[in-house]
Amino acid sequence: MARRRRASDPRQLELPCNLEDRADPQQLIAWLQEEYVTQQAEIQDLTTQLSAAQHLFETMRRTKDATIHKLHTEVFMLHAQLRLTLPDASAPLPDWLSGELRRLLAVAHPDKWSAGQDAQALAHEVAATINTLRQRLGEA
């Protein structure tokens, strides 16, 4: 018996003959059994496809969650490094550093220029003071 094409509504089964034609019941039963087997195979195929799609979705969700967690961790670490790198503006300077900066200001103060001190000697004094300060701060 030739199969008829399905109707556009997937919930509606298209029979191989018109029931009003009083088709042979045995043929109709055989066709219905064949259709049942076909539908079971199609359901199995769709179930397999759904399972694969669910697995892919779950894998992508886990990947997304792991990526977000990794990025949050990286941002946290960068923020911590930045806080360690930048000095806290509210923290007072150590006494020795305040003293060195006052000394540097005194060396380069404009009054020394107006007093007629030689520019080369003043530049040497400023450079020497800055180098001393750099050494105390641990720079090479």
Give structural notes:
The chain has helices spanning 25-85, 95-107, 110-114, 119-137. It has two domains: 19-85; 95-137, no CATH class. The radius of gyration is 43 Å and the shape is rod-shaped. The chain is 70% helix and 0% strand. The longest helix has 61 residues, at 25-85.
Summary of the model, kept short:
The chain is mainly alpha-helical. The chain is 70% helix and 0% strand.
Largest sheet: none
Tally of individual helices? 4
N-end to C-end Cα span: 95 Å
Number of strands: 0
Arithmetic mean of pLDDT: 77
Q: Tell me the Rg in angstroms.
A: 43 Å
Fraction of residues in helices?
over 70%
Q: Stretches where pLDDT falls below 50 for ≥5 residues? A: none
Class from secondary-structure proportions: mainly alpha
Tell me what portion of residues adopts beta-strand conformation: under 5%
Q: Secondary-structure element order, as H and E?
A: HHHH
Global morphology: rod-shaped
- Total discrete domains: 2
Which features characterize this protein?
140 residues, mainly alpha, 2 domains
Topology of this protein?
Elements (H helix, E strand, L loop, with lengths): L24 H61 L9 H13 L2 H5 L4 H19 L3
Helix pairs in contact: 2-4
